[in-house]
């Protein structure tokens, strides 16, 4: 027989108090959301830098809408291709696509292109907080205006290792007046026609081209370039005096490495490619195509005036004027010009400044993800400029990359081994005899669409080795982006990588994790990753023209673990 237990009012009150304490100190777990977007791609005439040209817009906008989500949310993008004469695909840059490799959005690697008039649905989970991007991954469409930002925050109740009052996104882009098709035709021609330097730098889709430079007796300049067009009014970042701002700064330039600076203000770097950085202060932020950073800005200067925000080209002799925006101190008018001249930024050829920033980026103490202490495989990728059958190409270990007609993911899952070259590219080059400081004596390269097959769950080291181009005393900075992974940045060094001694200098204590990293002029960059995400993943230079000209490779790992492919990605596949 059960004995009734009496609970006194005092004891009951204690239970209630304990319950409330638990609720207050342990925040409820936020339920992941489904966030739906319906986009339509169209060609439209726009004047982002005052010069009128055809651009690819998303729902009438370029840059496209910012995707805002919380960690763990599912993103669904219903994409209608209304370009009518042009295929497309969109890559979700920095999103690892765990268990959804078919939605990485890389035409020729993970999917067939989206044909004109078709609607394609992308669906994936944003599994980590941070600052990410999306952009076209078909031909050279990115530079036509098909790009935008992804901002992923922590769920409610969780906090980051830094504090701020407001969150803002700034996306940087260089801008050409020639179409991507005109540029691609020149790159694929004999004689070779280089794309040249961009005409403008855009800050959040706005720049200012000098329309008077087009003056010609036979041209009514105002019909093609109008300096009073509101579309090219400089972007204004409005701040409230005394407040702290998180600026999520990202770059999707087609060519240019950039320096971003705010007149009279320091910035504290706190995040890189979705990973917390041990904070350090900069006067200017060097940023390469495909990179994202968060910096903290304190609005602590004279509030009676506005200040310049400028973006300047580095690593190439500038042929492009600086990008200008206004840091607007409320309540000053956002179009009120600062009383000073824009700050010039660092010298374009000051390599050591750029290398020093790269070396300063370490994982935040308390948020270090320790790398494996040893590697299973090392692949050294020599970046060179070459010729193939008279065409100018970029090559990796003397092999210039071509995409196959059948995407690798489909070919491997369907066992269509005829679809691409089964001979893998080399793991290295002639370390002993190749002189990285001079024009190569043998400028000829081969082409291939072969891929690297990685053992699943193995640890892989990649060393990016820079070298001289086909021009005397010239080496270019290349930002390399890895799909499907983050990697540990183990180190940078000048000159030729020493496979015996330089690994002893790797940072295995607090390396930052990133998805995009530069290899500096005449130097090397070492990175390490785990091949633990089943799929087929591109790794390539993020400069549009360089990847178009063959500067990339592809990794396969754990293909047998990839689930059933959705039929929507396989429209271009025909069995023999």
From TrEMBL:
Its main location: secreted. Keywords: Copper, Disulfide bond, Glycoprotein, Metal-binding, Oxidoreductase, Repeat, Secreted, Signal. Its cofactor is Cu cation. CDD domains: CuRO_3_AAO (cd13893). Gene3D superfamilies: Cupredoxins - blue copper proteins. The keyword Transcription regulation does not apply. Its EC number is 1.10.3.3. Belongs to the multicopper oxidase family. This is L-ascorbate oxidase. It comes from Dipteronia sinensis.
